[in-house]
């Protein structure tokens, strides 16, 4: 695999990301005492950082890998929404596809960190599905973006926050199929079986268990192949990748299947790894790599993310260096 040629192909791609965007906030400080009010540590905050999360992090990964991201979502008409807009602008990611709703709050995940250890996380979010008005607005802005920008692929990034609804999913997949646009999904359990006829179905092992309501433990190639065949009958799709955490990635296509083992890593934080994997896998497949090659590259990139604290994107330089280091 000539990584420089692959990255050149990435630079030619335009990817539309649709789904739940959020702000990942990090409050960092030191613990020097226990609270007199309750037996809990007191963190003296000395740094605050805000990063794009969820579908916005997928868009950022696409950007840092050299491709052009487009982003469609619904956020609140609130201060956190303004923060997300500012963050995206700073990363030179278009905000033209963002809809501001007074009926929702912008999702914010706030993590309190001390000495690179997460003490607690608290979330501010709306979990109900979009109302009819916002749903229709999102469908229209996605359609308009597809017509105007002509993306090479569309990624659904579903975090169960209600932006992706069964009606919206069905409409968007239909639009993409008519225009022969590659579709990929990183599903969650609520809409698990709504993503019929996508090009790439990429659940992680937890969401697969939740979606099937089956806590299976056999992660052999044979067992995963049986699950893949069962899913393809109920949920037609072209390619499947299942991320297996520390066990790597399982891939299943028309002609080949297998497991790509994970590389040994000093894992700091798994946050954002799924965002990176779906971005890399989509870019790889539409750039001409095989499913197996796409799995290898996605597995490598997902592992790189886990070495960093918090949600971070993979850059071209990180990926290129990692490929060089694993070559014999």
Describe the protein's topology.
Elements lengths: L2 H8 L3 E6 L1 E14 L6 E14 H10 L3 E9 L2 H12 L6 E5 L6 E7 L2 E8 L7 H18 L3 E5 L8 H13 L3 E5 L11 E4 L3 H8 L8 H14 L2 E7 L5 E4 L4 E4 L12 H14 L4 H16 L9 H11 L2
Parallel strand pairs: 1-4, 1-8, 2-6, 4-5, 8-9, 9-10, 10-11
Antiparallel strand pairs: 2-3, 6-7, 11-12, 12-13
| CATH architecture title | 3-Layer(aba) Sandwich
The CATH H-level superfamily is: Ribokinase
Global geometry: globular
Number of domains: 1
CATH topology: UDP-N-acetylmuramoyl-L-alanine:D-glutamate ligase
The averaged pLDDT comes out at 91
Number of helices: 10
Tell me what the structure shows:
There is one protein chain. The protein is of the alpha/beta class. It has a nine-stranded mixed β-sheet, with helices on both faces. Strands 3-2-6-7 form a four-stranded mixed β-sheet. It has helices at residues 3-10, 55-64, 79-90, 132-149, 166-178, 205-212, 221-234, 273-286, 291-306, 316-326, and strands spanning 14-19, 21-34, 41-54, 68-76, 97-101, 108-114, 117-124, 153-157, 182-186, 198-201, 237-243, 249-252, 257-260. It starts with a helix and ends with a helix. The radius of gyration is 20 Å and the shape is globular. Helix content is 38%, strand content 28%. Strand 11 (237-243) and strand 12 form a beta hairpin. It has a single domain, classed as UDP-N-acetylmuramoyl-L-alanine:D-glutamate ligase (3-Layer(aba) Sandwich). It is built from ten helices and 13 strands. Helix 2 (55-64) packs across helix 8 (273-286), helix 8 (273-286) runs antiparallel to helix 9 and helix 9 packs across helix 10.
């Amino acid at each position: 695999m000539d990584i420089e040629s692959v990255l050149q192909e990435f630079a030619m791609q335009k990817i539309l990301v649709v789904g739940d965007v959020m702000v990942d906030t990090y409050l960092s400080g030191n613990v020097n005492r226990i609270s007199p009010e309750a037996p809990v540590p007191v963190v003296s905050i000395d740094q605050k950082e805000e990063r794009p999360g969820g579908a916005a992090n997928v868009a950022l990964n696409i950007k840092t890998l050299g491709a052009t991201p487009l982003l469609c979502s619904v956020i609140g008409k609130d201060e956190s929404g303004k923060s997300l807009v500012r963050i995206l602008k700073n990363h030179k990611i278009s905000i033209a596809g963002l809809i501001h709703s007074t009926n929702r709050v912008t999702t914010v995940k706030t993590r309190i960190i001390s000495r690179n250890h997460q003490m607690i996380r608290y979330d501010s979010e709306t979990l109900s599905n979009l109302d009819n008005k916002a749903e229709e607005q999102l469908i229209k802005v996605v359609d308009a973006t597809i017509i105007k920008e002509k993306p090479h692929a569309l990624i659904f990034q579903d975090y169960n926050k209600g932006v992706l609804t069964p009606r919206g999913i069905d409409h968007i997949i239909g639009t993409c199929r008519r225009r022969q646009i590659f579709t990929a999904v990183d599903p969650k359990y609520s809409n698990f079986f709504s993503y019929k006829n996508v090009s790439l179905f990429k659940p992680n092992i937890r969401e697969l268990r939740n979606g099937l309501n089956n806590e299976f433990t056999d992660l052999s190639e044979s067992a995963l192949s049986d699950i893949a065949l069962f899913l393809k009958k109920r949920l037609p799709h072209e390619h499947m990748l299942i991320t297996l955490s520390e066990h790597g990635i399982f891939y299943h296509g028309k002609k080949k299947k297998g497991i790509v083992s994970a590389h040994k890593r000093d894992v700091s934080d798994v946050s954002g790894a799924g965002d990176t994997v779906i971005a890399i896998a989509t870019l790889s497949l539409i750039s001409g790599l095989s499913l197996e090659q796409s799995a290898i590259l996605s597995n490598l990139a997902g592992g790189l993310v886990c070495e960093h604290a918090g949600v971070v994107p993979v850059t071209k330089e990180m990926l290129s260096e990692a490929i060089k280091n694993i070559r014999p």
